[in-house]
Amino acid sequence: MSDVLLSVQGLKTHFGAREGVIRAVDGVDFDIGRGRTLCIVGESGSGKSITARSILQIVSRPGRIVDGKILLHCDSRPEVDLAALDPAGRNIRDIRGRDIAMIFQEPMNSLSPIHTIGDQLLEKIRLHHKLSRKAAEDRAVAALERVGIPDPKARLATYPFELSGGMRQRVMIAMALACRPALLIADEPTTALDVSTQANILDLIRDLQAETGMSVMFITHDLGVVAEIADDVAVMYLGRVVERGSTEQIFYDPQHPYTQALLASIPKLGARRQAGERLYAIKGMVPHPLNRPEGCPFHTRCPEAVSGLCDRRVPAQVSFGDNHVADCHMRDPEVLRAREAV
Q1: 5 in helix, strand or coil?
Q2: Are 70 and 156 spatial neighbours (Cβ–Cβ below 8 Å)?
Q3: Chain Cα centroid distance, residue 217
Q4: 55: nearest Cα among 42, 44, 40
Q5: CB 79 within 8 A of CB 33
Q6: Is 193 within 8 Å of 201 (Cβ atoms)?
Q7: Closest Cα partner for 324 from 260, 201, 242?
Q8: Vertex 189, ends 283 and 53: CA angle to 5°?
Q9: Is 112 helix (H, G, I), strand (E, B) or coil?
Q10: Which segments of 100-194 does DSSP mark as H helices, in order?
Q11: What are the DSSP calls for 244-263, one per residue?
Q12: Residue 134 lies in a domain
């Protein structure tokens, strides 16, 4: 059995527009290990959510996968390339919810306001499992109980708008886990919650992962969350993974200037500042994908960018050992030797 549950290789998801082609995901590679948590981080516009939606083939039109593989190594089925499946076909619909489940940032956008929690849970369970209504109801109650919702049987008759934001997110997690998926994709599920509720949801996901052995792909822009829950980290910028490695490698030995800038922008608790001193911020903004820079996508904001190199050539991937890689000319030994020889 492979230690890798999901392998994304050269994934490209593009959107056709009158102005041109928007390369929202432009050659992404990463693996998610069995029972491990991969956090994908980056600023808004980096392509994190489109990457997640591509895995389940739920990218809104006119977006579509144009290249790459998404290989699922699930115990319940032979290896399958999700990118090759028909987005509206039965094969991918069987995988959604059963083998791979997803929770979103705002549960009210995912839960039906006119159906009870019980109706929505039972529909999903019976869609993927041939169970009687009574057996499905028992599983739904167990799922709600597992995520810490009080009086779970009574909650089956509750409508989403009758619950708090934290309780709605717990319902979403219960729905995601009701079919016992191998992989849970969480797309910024705590961003809209207050700090204490966020901490409770993160603890819940971690406890459920330990209990079920599922893998987690967690999308966030909050490096504090990453430090708390991640085993592995992929840093995205403008549709590409510019650095990936273990949590320790990313936090204690970051190699890409973008990763270093993200870490430098975190306020340090107890740090002494001089009067008028500003917090560090990465200069500029993530360019629109239609205005993608030539060469390294980060060179317009990078303090280490070299004219004639970073603005002309796409950097090669450089390995630092133990599955730690980064795309940067200034970390490439061959480039540095060539520059020294001039």
Answers
A1: strand
A2: no
A3: 5
A4: 40
A5: no
A6: yes
A7: 242
A8: 80
A9: coil
A10: 117-128, 133-146, 152-155, 165-177
A11: EEEHHHHHHS--SHHHHHHH
A12: no
Average pLDDT over every residue of 116-141: 85
- In degrees, rounded to 5, the angle at the alpha carbon of residue 92 between the alpha carbons of residues 236 and 89 is 125
What is the residue type of 140?
A: A
Rounded CA separation 176/125 (Å): 10
The DSSP letter of residue 314 is P
- Give the closest residue to 84 by CA, choosing from 71, 74, 97, 96: 71
96 forms bridges with which residues in the sheet? 100
Question: Over the stretch 9-65, which tens digit does the pLDDT of each residue have?
Answer: 999 999 988 888 999 999 999 999 999 999 999 998 899 999 999 999 999 889 999
Nearest to 310 by CA among 326, 290, 286, 330: 330
- Residue 269: predicted pLDDT: 60
pLDDT in tens, 84-122: 999 989 899 889 878 999 888 776 667 888 899 999 888
Q: And the tokens for 227?
A: 């430090």
Domain residue limits at 316:
255-269+277-341
Report the alpha-carbon distance of residue 209 to residue 203 in Å, rounded. 10
Residue 187 lies in a domain: no
Whether 236 contacts 247, CB under 8 Å = no
Biggest CA–CA distance in the chain, Å, is 76
Classify residue 127: in a domain, yes or no: no
Burial class (CB within 10 angstroms; exposed 0-12, middle 13-18, buried 19+) of 42: buried
What is the pairing mode between strands 20-33 and 37-41? unpaired
User: Residue 275: pLDDT band by 50, 70, 90 thresholds?
Assistant: low
| Cβ proximity of 152 and 145 under 8 Å | yes
pLDDT at position 108, please? Answer: 67
Residue 263 counted as domain residue: yes
Distance CA 219, CA 186 (A): 6
Instruction: List the one residue out of 183, 220, 174, 202 whose CA is nearest residue 55.
Output: 183
Cβ–Cβ under 8 Å, residues 15 and 62:
yes
Locate 23 and state its tokens: 């390369």
Q: Give the total number of structural domains in the chain.
A: 1
Length of the chain: 342
